Amino acid sequence: LNVLKLLEVKQKHNLSDRAFNEILSIFTNNEISLYAVKKKLLKLVNIMPIFIDICINSCMAFTGQYANESSCHYCEESRFIDGNLQKRKSCKVLSYFSLIDRFKIQYNDPGRSKLLKYRYEYINNENYDNSNIGDIFDGNLYKELVNEGFFANERDIALIGSTDGYQIFKQK
């Protein structure tokens, strides 16, 4: 279990594989490797990425109706390196992880499942006005959605997207 905690530190601080293996060798006397840790983690958390080819400029994803396209519809860049359709090596690939699979894992853990009820159990603070919001659930848009019948069930999930990487609320 401590090895999985070390893997979390590796991810959190962006340690190289080489640095991580050196740390492992110090604490485990070379009894375990990064490969073995990842294999153990895969048994605990069975989330596999889905790899999707995307435009080199991130204009579009080559999926769905565009799965067989060889160039971007927007910037006309080739999907494949050197434009070679025979080798079919994509210029850029996106790793996609299913939200449904991630939620299943979280809801299977009783402690985490209780934490996920935060939205449902959140008490709106009447002292907040539009210029001082304590949480996304104090916002007018969320309140409008609730009035329209959304988020009635305690298991309903509200997601927030941040495209610039800036986290505006304490909840992750």
UniProtKB/TrEMBL annotation:
Top-rank taxon: Eukaryota
Database matches in PANTHER family: OS08G0208400 PROTEIN
Protein's name in the database: Transposase domain-containing protein
Provenance organism: Rhizophagus irregularis
